[in-house]
Amino acid sequence: MKNLSLLKPTMKFSTVFLPVLFLVQFNLAQAHGDEDHSKKPAKPATKSSAVASVKPSILDATSAQRLSDGSLFVPKIVQRQLALRTLLTEQAELPNTIELNGKVLADPNAGGRVQASQPGRLETGPSGLPSLGQRVTKGQVLAYLRPVMSSLDRGNSQSILADIDSQLSIAERKVQRYEQLAEALPKATVEAARFDYEALKKRKAAVESSLSKSEALIAPVSGIISVANAVTGQVFDAKETLFEIIDPNRLMVEALAYDPILTSDIANATATWNQQRTSAAANTPVSLALNFVGGGQQMREQAIPLLFRVSGKSTAVAVGQTIKVIIQTKRLTTGFAVPNSSVIKLTGGESVVWVHTEAERFVQRKVVAHSLDGERVSIISGLKDDERVVTTGASLLAQVK
After folding, report:
1. CA angle 275, 253, 240 (to 5 degrees)
2. φ, ψ for residue 150 (rounded to 5)?
3. Phi, then psi, of 249 in degrees rounded to 5
4. 78/63 Cα distance (integer angstroms)
5. CA-based, 20 to 30 A from 121: which of 82, 138, 261, 356?
6. Exposure on the CB side of residue 80, measured as CA atoms within 13 A
7. Which residues lie within the region annotated Disordered (predicted)?
């Protein structure tokens, strides 16, 4: 009984405070919400993780990018890798130019042809037959041409030769008799007989040479063999070309103009073409300085031929090659002179240049350009003074996406 009395206060205390403890625990559990405490709490961001989040932007800053407005962001390091070069524009009075189609010709005073004067069979010369590219000198024997006759022609020639032999024998005996009677005969009679004898000898030699003697084919000028259509033993007809000789340092250019007034308005001229390299991207323009010789006064193919002489030594150009002739007239126009490499052609045929507006920014400009000479173009519109135009690497900037 004593023990039961002692337990009563304790039971009363627990019944009073038990609901209160349960309510406190329930509120504490509800304050944490739905958070998962099974995992370790995330650590605060360290310095290394902050640098890692910045790395993508650094990579973008070291590569060329095309911005939303069409301009390019090109960092300095990329500009050095692309070897970009710029030129400060300056407005000036430039000649008005006209482009014509031209063709390279050999100078008629420094070139020649070797043709067969009669039908014959070709024989080698003292040094063999000349080959393409071989240099020859004026008067050099290139080959021999042995005449070829039909059986009827050969029979007629042989009958003529037999008749001459008989006449020559009679003339020889006549001269011998007259010389024995020189004191009794007039001097004029003896000399006439001797002259007839000499004439028959020359006639016989001429007929014999026509039957067997070969004709020497001689180089008319000094130069390089550009055409060789000869093979030993080949039979040629009369007027057929065997060899052609040109001097590569003395060439001419013929262009066709459709304005007769142009012949009196030429100040300067340049011939240009693209020289083929190992790859299409390595093609480089080549130019030649031209001196105007004169223009024809008769239309040919609805155009007037203009003749120019190549000044100085010519580069790798071939006779018959089609080139572009840029004629500078005496009229002037206002524009900007920039290298040919600055202007890029778009797919639509428009001409554009790249302008360096800021330290790492390039803007594309549409321009109107005309060829000024073999190395420069004249930009009439699209540029302003003191703008930096890209001269080297403009084609690489156009490939930036």
Report:
1. 100
2. -75, 165
3. -90, 0
4. 7
5. 138
6. 3
7. 109-131
